[in-house]
Structure formats: structure tokens, C-alpha cells
Amino acid sequence: MIVRLRNIERNDLPSLYEFQLDPEANQLAATNPRSAEVFDAHWEKILQDQNVIVKAILVGDLLAGCISCFKSDEIDVVGYWLGREFWGKGSATRALQLLLVQISMRPLLARVAVSNIGSLRVLQKCGFSIVRHEHAPGDDRYIECEEAVLILEQNVTATSIHELHGRQV
């Protein structure tokens, strides 16, 4: 499996919209899907924001999802979303490894529902450590849940990822 990142293209958006509608994905991520109108407005804002780094995740030639780094309350945060057919195959881990080599911001924060074991594993494989659990209140986008807050403090390089996983980047 070859995973690579590239810039988001407008023709990726319909597939990304469909990915975020998946009920099982939303249950795992403790999110509510966005309506088409809200999704389009969200992505318009993202694509115009020079401070957001967002990439398409490709597995082979197939769009598998997206990954991003953005500011939230003045803290750099990473997030990702994959279509269900790409779960459990290492695609998210590899995409995060690739992003971490491309960006220099540290520390990086990630938040994930504690029930989302797969995503917790992805983050920990890439060097993130759980620093606390906290109650996340619900809103239009997020479902009330217990979240793990993870942080990546060191400068992850191709070499350190190789050491974490025993393979070439």
C-alpha cells in the first residue's frame, strides 16, 4: 500500500463530504455530520486560510481522506478523517507520519474520543502521548463525550519515525 499526501483539490470535496456522512465514522469520532451547506462553508473557509495546512490522503490513486494542521485557541492541532474502506490498514498512521515530516510546528495537540481506540493507536504510534482526559461538551458538530488530549512535543523527523516503526519513510 502506497500512501501519499497532496494538496486538496476542489473535486475531492464531494468524496470528503460523503466520508463525513458515514454513521459509524461519526459515532467513533463523536461528531455529527455536516449538512451540504455547512460542509461547503467550512471547506471554503479552510481553503482560503493560509494558516491551515490540509492535505488529501491518497492510497494508491484513491482518495482515502484528508489530514490537517490548524490553530485552535492559539495551539497547533492535527486532525484527520478517512473513508471507512481505508480503516485498519495503516493508512491514517502513514498519512500522519508523512504530515509530521512536512510540518515543523511543535508542540502539536490532538483530541480524540476515548472510545475511538483506532485513532488513539494512530496518534500513539506517531509519538503522541496522552496528557489528560477531559469532558467535551456537545455542540452542533461534536457529541458530548470523554476526550483524550494528546501532545507531540519532540521534533519528529523521518529518522525518528523510522526508529518508531522500524521501516523507511
What features would you describe in this structure?
The chain has 169 residues and is α+β, with helices and mostly antiparallel strands. It has a single domain, classed as Gcn5-related N-acetyltransferase (GNAT) (Aminopeptidase). Helix content is 33%, strand content 31%. The chain is built from 6 helices and 7 strands. The chain has helices spanning 13-19, 23-29, 36-48, 91-102, 117-125, 158-165, and strands at 3-7, 53-59, 62-72, 75-82, 108-113, 129-136, 145-152. Strands 1-2-3-4 form a 4-stranded antiparallel β-sheet, with helices on both faces. Strand 3 (62-72) and strand 4 form a beta hairpin. The two termini are 13 Å apart.
Quick overview:
The chain is an alpha+beta fold and 169 residues long. Helices cover 33% and strands 31% of the residues.
Low-confidence stretches: 158-169
Task: Report the count of strand segments.
Answer: 7
CATH class: Alpha Beta
The helix-and-strand class reads: alpha+beta
Proper CATH architecture: 3-Layer(aba) Sandwich
Count of discrete alpha- or pi-helical segments spanning 4 or more residues? 6
What helical percentage do the residues reach? Answer: 25-40%
Query: Radius of gyration from the CA trace?
Result: 15 Å
Q: Which sequence of SSEs, written as H and E, runs from N to C?
A: EHHHEEEHEHEEH
Give the tally of structural domains: 1
- The chain-level mean pLDDT equals 91
How would you name the CATH homologous superfamily? Answer: Gcn5-related N-acetyltransferase (GNAT)
